[in-house]
Specification:
CATH topology of chain B: Arp2/3 complex 21 kDa subunit ARPC3
Shape of chain B: globular
CATH class of chain B: Mainly Alpha
Order of helices and strands of chain A: HHHHEEEEEEEEEEEEEE
Oligomer: heterodimer
Number of domains of chain B: 1
Largest sheet of chain B: none
Distance between the termini of chain A: 49 Å
Number of strands of chain A: 14
Largest sheet of chain A: 6 strands, antiparallel, barrel
Strand content of chain B: under 5%
Number of helices of chain B: 7
Distance between the termini of chain B: 25 Å
Chain lengths: 288, 168
């Protein structure tokens, strides 16, 4: 290793590395999923998956504790609401334990899995992505278990599936799932009462936006909530990726725009901050 | 060899922490960028040459796990490591706050650069407000972590430095 190198050598090194970076960007951009760089990426993810799983298993209670602390400002706001619930909760505390809750969670998934039409694979969340600009999770099931790119991912109970996201990258032992709230995510949705359809797109940490619905759409008044579900469609030979009637969320606000089309905010049905187990629907084999 | 292994361990640990523990431990919805922090601290310690090299390596490692075209983080961190290494000679203050301040400024600039490049490549979907928020909060979070992580990193870098020739 050259410990002492002149500024000239350093400049050459930097220029070299920048050129290599630009070459990597260009090549990866062109090749997409099939080049040697994509293979390297898959190898790296495969290497990291068991480590991420181990760390997540070891730190889950700690992470939960700290995520509580980190959300302190919003917790303070919820304080008033929570006080009202305390009486109700105290009665349940004795009966509730983490194991029971987890058991219930898994039982719900099992019920849901049995009620779902396309076959599905249960998976555990082992990591929560790397970037602040993308919302994704990593799960502990991959191509060895039949998970494929573009498979929809859901959670929920027998009452119904709730949409989590879609598989965007697969290794033999893990898969990356782009979450519903990611800015690059969009899914066609249908309003439950009016039946109007529109495109639901992710907004990061804000509620989802449902676009292109007719301006005269009627919404239930008062405290009744309007739910948004997935739909299937077929345009030419392009088929939708999502099975119908998966709950996306509930309408949280109606934006009265000046355009001919209205827009509504949709609160996701899934709490992404406490997501631990999901189901991968194996539908991608038949469509793109 | 020992140094390469030590830095490899540092990078893997940083990626692991960022994708698991720190993704739960967010500051107003934003997680820290540990590989930016590693690059900046090592560049500050070792100069532009090492800074550029470690930046490229950290960036490439992070790129492999992102759902973005590979190479953008490598480009960002190469330039960041080089720039911080070059800026080192202009820092005369002996204050112990220097690493924290440098990490804050460099992280904000690095994240902004990354956002601009992804935007130019048509991969950036969020709005300007969100981009600014992420850059500033990441910088703040990294700065908060610096007093804890920088001494640790420094010790690893010092400890794994190739041994000088022993004169008798």
């Amino acid at each position: 290793m050259a410990a002492r190198s002149g500024p000239r050598n350093t400049r050459l090194l930097v220029v070299g590395l920048v050129v290599v970076s630009l070459a990597i960007i260009t090549v990866d951009y062109r090749e997409g999923d099939s080049g040697p760089l994509a293979d390297m990426g898959r190898a790296a993810r495969t290497f990291m998956a068991p480590l991420q799983e181990a760390v997540t298993n070891a730190t889950r209670p700690v992470g939960d504790f700290f995520s509580g602390v980190a959300h302190l400002p919003s917790l303070a706001r919820e304080n008033a609401d929570l006080k009202a619930e305390i009486a109700d909760l105290q009665a349940r505390i004795a009966a509730t334990s983490q194991v029971a809750a987890q058991n219930q969670n898994l039982q719900n998934l099992l019920d849901l899995q049995q009620s779902l039409r396309p076959p599905s694979v249960p998976a555990v969340v082992i990591a929560n992505g790397m970037s602040n600009l993308n919302y994704s999770i990593t799960i502990d099931r991959g191509s060895n278990d039949g998970v494929q790119k573009n498979d929809p991912v859901v959670t929920g109970s027998q009452d119904g599936a709730r949409l989590v996201g879609i598989v965007v990258a697969v290794t033999p032992i893990s898969a990356d799932v782009r979450l519903l709230i990611d800015e690059g995510f969009s899914v066609p949705g249908r309003l439950a009462t009016s039946g109007e359809t529109g495109l639901v797109v992710g907004n990061g940490d804000q509620d989802l936006t449902m676009q292109d619905i007719p301006a005269n759409t009627k919404f239930p008044s008062g405290s009744a909530t309007e739910s948004v579900f997935t739909i299937t469609y077929q345009i030419g030979d392009q088929q939708s990726r999502f099975p119908p009637n998966i709950l996306i969320g509930t309408v949280s606000a109606v934006v009265q725009g000046v355009q001919p089309d209205a827009q509504v905010s949709v609160r996701p049905a899934v709490d992404f901050s406490s997501l631990e187990t999901v189901l991968v629907l194996q539908t991608a084999g038949s469509s793109g | 060899m020992r140094r390469v292994l030590a830095l490899f361990a540092v990078i893997v640990t940083a990626i692991l922490l960022q994708s698991t523990v720190f993704s739960q431990l967010r500051l107003l919805g934003v997680r820290p960028e540990l590989l930016y922090l590693v690059t900046i601290v090592i560049a500050l310690q070792e100069g532009p040459n090492e800074g550029a090299l470690i930046g490229f390596t950290c960036g490439l490692a992070q790129d492999m796990l992102l759902d973005q075209p590979m190479g953008i983080t490598a480009l960002t961190l190469t330039l960041l490591g080089y720039a911080v290494g070059m800026a080192r000679q202009y820092i005369v203050s002996p204050s112990p706050l220097v690493p924290t301040v440098v990490v804050a400024i460099a992280t904000a600039l690095g994240v902004a650069f990354y956002e601009i490049v992804t935007f130019l490549l048509g991969q950036f979907e969020a709005g300007v407000t969100y981009a600014v928020k992420v850059a500033l909060l990441t910088a703040l979070y990294n700065a908060v972590l610096t007093p804890i992580l920088a001494p640790l990193l420094r010790r690893i870098v010092e400890g794994s430095r190739p041994r000088r020739v022993v004169r008798l």
